[in-house]
Specification:
About 70% of the residues lie in helices and about 10% in strands. It has about 170 residues and is mainly α.
C-alpha cells in the first residue's frame, strides 16, 4: 500500500525526475543546522546584531552572491561538486557548466551545489549565524567576499572597456 507521501510525490512529479525525498532531507539539514547553531549561540550567550544598517546589508548581499557563485561555479570548488555533477564545459569566464547527476538525495544535493541562487539562502543564513556566534571573524569573511565581488565587477568592466576601445 502506498503511503500518503509517496502518492503526493508521484502526483507532483508528473512523470519528471523530482527527488522530493532528497529535498525533505535537505530541508531537515537546513532547519536542523540553523536550530542547532541558534541553540549554540544562546548557550554561549551570543545574540545576533540588534540591527543591520544599509551598508551591512549591502556587504552581506555582495558577499552572499560571491560565496554562492564560488561554491556553485568556480573551478577550484569543483571537487566539492564532483560527487553530484558531471563536467560539461565552461559557462562564463572562470565559471564551469556542470550537469546534475544521480537520483534521490545525490540529485537534490547536485541541484543545490550547482545553483548560486539556491545556495544564497544557505550562505546568507550562515553569515547571519556567524554574526551571532563570531561577529568579528564573520565580518572579516563578509568584507573579504564583498571586496572580491566588487573586484570581479571591476574586472568585467575593465574587459568591456578594452573591448569597446578595440572595436572603434
Amino acid at each position: 500500500m502506498t503511503t500518503w507521501f509517496e502518492r503526493q510525490a508521484a502526483a507532483y512529479k508528473n512523470g519528471h525526475d523530482r527527488p522530493l525525498g532528497g529535498y525533505v532531507v535537505m530541508l531537515g539539514i537546513y532547519g536542523g543546522g540553523t536550530a542547532l547553531t541558534t541553540a549554540l549561540a544562546r548557550a554561549l550567550g551570543r545574540t545576533p546584531p540588534d540591527r543591520l544598517g544599509p551598508w551591512d546589508v549591502t556587504q552581506l548581499a555582495a558577499a552572499t552572491h560571491k560565496l554562492a557563485r564560488t561554491i556553485a561555479k568556480d573551478p577550484i570548488t569543483s571537487p566539492l561538486r564532483a560527487p553530484f555533477t558531471t563536467y560539461v564545459g565552461t559557462s562564463a569566464p572562470a565559471e564551469l557548466k556542470e550537469d546534475v547527476r544521480g537520483v534521490g538525495l545525490q540529485h537534490s544535493f547536485g541541484e543545490l551545489v550547482t545553483c548560486p541562487m539556491c545556495l544564497g539562502q544557505w550562505v546568507a543564513t550562515g553569515f547571519m549565524l556567524g554574526l551571532a556566534i563570531a561577529p568579528k571573524a564573520t565580518r572579516t569573511v563578509i568584507a573579504t567576499f564583498a571586496a572580491v565581488s566588487g573586484a570581479d565587477f571591476l574586472q568585467y568592466l575593465y574587459a568591456r572597456l578594452q573591448q569597446s576601445e578595440s572595436s572603434e
